[in-house]
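Before surveying the methods themselves, it helps to consider a single example record, giving the amino acid sequence and backbone structure tokens:
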Amino acid sequence: MPHSRVNTGLTNSTTKQKSWPLVIAALGVVFGDIGTSPLYSVKECFSPHYSLSAGLNGVYGVLSMIFWSLTIVVAIKYIGVISRFDNHGEGGQMALMELVLPFVKNRYILLLVSYIGLFGAALLYGDGMITPAISVLSAVEGVKVAIPSLSQSTIVIATILILFGLFSVQRFGSRGVGRIFGPVMIAWFLVIGTIGAISIVQTPGILAAVNPLYAIEFFSKHGLEGALVLGSVFLVMTGGETVYADLGHFGAKPIRKGWFMLVFPCLLLNYFGQGALLLREGHIASTVANPFFHLVPSWGVIPLVIFSTATTSIASQAVISGAFSLTWQALQLGYLPRLTTVHTSDTERGQIYIPFVNWALFACTVYLVLQFQSSGALAAMYGIAVSTTMVLTTLVAWHAMRHIAKWSVTTSLMVTAIFFGVDISFFLANATKIPDGGYVPLIIAGSVFFLMVTWKRGRSILRAAIQKRTPVLEEIIDDIDSYTTVPGTAIYLSGYRDIAPPALVSNVRYNRCRHEVIILLTVSVGTESHITRERRFEIKPLQKNFYQVVLHYGFMDQLDIAGDIDYLPEFDIPIDITDTTLVFGHETITVTNRKGMAWWRKHIFMFVHRNSRMPVKYFGVPFKRVLEVGSNIEI
């Protein structure tokens, strides 16, 4: 599938007018996670288990690694390179996978790329659970700087209440939330940049840490222990992957503007400000334990705690909206069963809310807070999911560089090698966290990945079983005159085109009747993110008032079956919506020992299939007359 840009037809002035509101909204959604990393990143680098002193070599080395990590991974890799590879405006691991698959010819590499893309996408769910937990918990823990006697149980309860409020507002949509959160995040970045700059002015020599030689010197002095610190340095980039995942919500240009004009400068000012503070007060244990909140005078701690608590709630928005986008893409591409999906905007595509995903993430997040109790304990698992995702993204992006950007082999190899070298270093450093809790996001991702491939394979086996037991469509049409004709139109909703729907076969054979007009309706979701209405309809008139209708959608399009059916008379199909019956099939699955998939996986597929949403409810077709015809299928 060729890579193309959609021409919106907007003038430059109109585009600019619409761009700034999107920049503000993006600041509230996309950069919330990475924007609150200063709360815990630096303090984790100097946590006791690394035995790293806050001296000149340690502070300069850590800051040098932070500067170049943000520059190479976020600014260059994601903002500069990966965001160029949008799938008709959509981003994210699954969109990138679908974008490059048509260019992969070797079937083994094709399967590998598919699995890499799916597992990388599944890792986002683990990140979506940990990010809200560690972000909000680390902010609320700042109260201890002002009130050391505050109990940890009180902090945990307050964190859970804040998280409940955050997940409760998701139904209003990411852009609606972004309009509220955007100005708050702008104020946040200005505040952390300002308090960081004030600290830098007191110790301006800290700016020399931009020299990469300090990072090299740090590794030469600390060896393996220094390499392990990379696991905490990586925390400054958590949220960087959502820059690409949320591309479809706001677009590449607003995200780039927000990053380079505000987010990146303010983050660097704060990180270097914390480093300057450690050079001055590195001998004070309380400062090293929480340098962020010591950047302000004692009277400013409580206001900063309140402000940071609000912004960490916003920070979680990036991964939550990313999880919604990922789930919708997986649903449309056939990797997940049908789930209730609410489109929160009538004008903006990609603005969605999925209740099941929202409250599942909330439940898991609360469990993590109760289980680990502190941000330091959560940091042990944080990073492994994101670092794994970044490695997998680089591997898939190689194909995008070669076949979409048309870069030469030499250039693609050089860029991929640089990105992969940095990514794998962070992955190996984070891999040491696996025994201390890093296994949690991996187990979550593995479970989601398993569900995806099982559902996809199960649907393929079910289709083959239906085709095997169902007569060809021509045979039904030839035999249709032998049944009684009843007035009106029947629309048979079928997931399988070019074969007789089981509901049609059962209806004519057992009820011994047919409608005057029969429409075989199939919804086809392709690998393009969006398909225009002009390209949506595929009409094939058959004999004896039969019509084969295929509605083509992109995997990020809002399905509007009822609205599209209203256009059918324009294609000379004699349909009267007021006298139409919607007929759909409901398959009851029986598991056998036939080949195709292990019997226990078939049972899992059967369970999920039985509990997925009915097609009528999923597609939102408002027909008053609906006929469900059941059939038993052995797989």
Summary: Strands lie at 342-343, 352-353, 484-493, 513-525, 537-541, 546-553, 580-590, 626-634. The longest strand covers residues 513-525. The chain has two domains: 21-456, 471-634. The radius of gyration is 27 Å.
